[in-house]
Structure formats: C-alpha cells, structure tokens
Amino acid sequence: MLTREDVLQRVLLLPPIDQAFVAEMLERQIASVQSIPPELGESWSKEIDRRIAAYDRGEMASLEFDQSLHQLRQAITEHRSARDVT
Hints:
Radius of gyration: 16 Å
Structural class: mainly alpha
Mean pLDDT: 86
Helix content: over 70%
Low-confidence stretches: none
Number of helices: 4
Strand content: under 5%
C-alpha cells in the first residue's frame, strides 16, 4: 500500500498541469466531504486556473517543495510573532 508520502512524491514528479488537476480533484473531494460552500470551491478553481495560466505565460515561477514549505513555515512564524506582539 502506498503511503501519503509516496503519493505526494509521485504527484510532485508530474508536470504542473497534471499537479493542478490532482489539486483540483482533491479540493473537490474535500469540499464535498466537509460541506464547504460551492462558491468557495469555484473561487479556488478559478484561482488555480489563473495561476496555471500565469505560470504557462512565464509570469510566475515555480518553487521546489522544500523551498515552498520553508517559506510557508517562515510566514506562519512571522504571523504568530506579530500576533503575539499586539
């Protein structure tokens, strides 16, 4: 049986358009299970399409997963620090 890490690694090897497809299908599944309002799912789908198109036009760069995760963790830490100051 594949672990979630195995699945993630396989998805990350796909071309960006296929990664976006997987992300959209997961988003739809999660939305249907968690009763997320349909308009939110539609908004995310539009945003995903917008970002893919911008990437395809060369207007956005991609990041390696580790770099992206590092930036996300750093942003969360900064957000928490700013929240604790006020």
